[in-house]
Design goal:
Helices cover 3% and strands 59% of the residues. It is mainly beta.
Length: 127
């Protein structure tokens, strides 16, 4: 197994529009996103921090950095997974999020797990 597979984290995202928490007339669109994090590498690693880039349809960009996720810094052995749900409010009915998680492997190596861009969209706006 090469070095690139040694430090390997798989991130999956499932966004969801929360109509009951949104106020479209006031320009408030609330979305939840369910994140799955799998240590698909060969060494234990701890998630230390997160970095999100949130882009709204109007072009505004917000960056969010913080320690851990939902108040935790999970330690993941190879094959272990961690999941959580969080949310974001936008002022437009469509936006995107992307980012990364910063990890520290048990052997002292720091590395990042990229979070591919995903779309936040009110149903029927894009399709």
């Amino acid at each position: 197994m090469g070095e690139s597979r040694k430090y390997d984290i798989t991130v999956t995202v499932q966004p969801q529009y929360l109509e009951d928490q949104s106020d479209e007339a006031a320009g408030r669109y609330v979305f939840a996103y369910h994140i799955g994090i799998l240590n698909s590498g060969s060494v234990p690693a701890q998630l230390l921090s997160r970095h999100w880039i949130i882009t709204e349809a109007a072009g505004s960009v917000q960056e969010v950095r913080g320690q851990g996720v939902v108040g935790e810094q999970p330690q993941l052995k190879p094959g272990d997974s961690f999941s959580y749900t969080s949310g974001v409010a936008l002022s437009t009915p469509v936006g995107t999020m992307r980012g990364s998680y910063q990890f520290m492997a048990e052997d002292g190596t720091a590395f990042e797990a990229e979070i591919a861009e995903f779309v936040l969209s009110v149903p029927r706006v894009l399709h």
